[in-house]
Amino acid sequence: MKTLLLFTGILLMLSCNSPLEDSYTAMTTEVETTLPDPEHPGKALMEKNCYACHNAATAHEDRIAPPMIAVKKHYISEDTSKEEFTEAILNWTKEPSEDKAKMYGAVKRFGVMPYQSFPEETIRQISEYLYDYDIEEPEWFAE
Predict the structure, then answer these.
(1) Is the Cβ–Cβ distance between 106 and 35 less than 8 Å?
(2) 59-98 pLDDT, tens per residue?
(3) Which of 26, 62, 89, 137 fits as disulfide partner to 141, beta carbons 3.0 to 4.6 Å?
(4) How far apart are CA 87 and CA 114, in angstroms?
(5) Class of CATH domain 42-135
């Protein structure tokens, strides 16, 4: 038994005696920035055409529609391409209906979004901005 303890102790001391690295290499990863772009035309179009109902600054109890961040989260998954996202938003805005809804809770709470006549290019620019950039979130949204 003494031999086993002595052998274990020697192994422990030898394993702790490894030299320290003199230098470490920093690991870097490329991170795609998605900060809001104040120059992107989709941002201004979204604020002008969508924020009357979908504004993140509106209090939770005063909302008449979900905030745009909720729309983004419901329409984009890990494997959603920008083209798929844009087509889904176009499909919804051209003819909103309960059958096409992806946000069942929002339809239950607010009803189906009323049809609005937006030019297709406007929806495409808004969709591109939504897909590529971070947008404002209400404080309660992350909860």
Answers:
(1) no
(2) 989 999 999 999 999 999 999 999 999 999 999 999 999 9
(3) 137
(4) 19
(5) mainly alpha
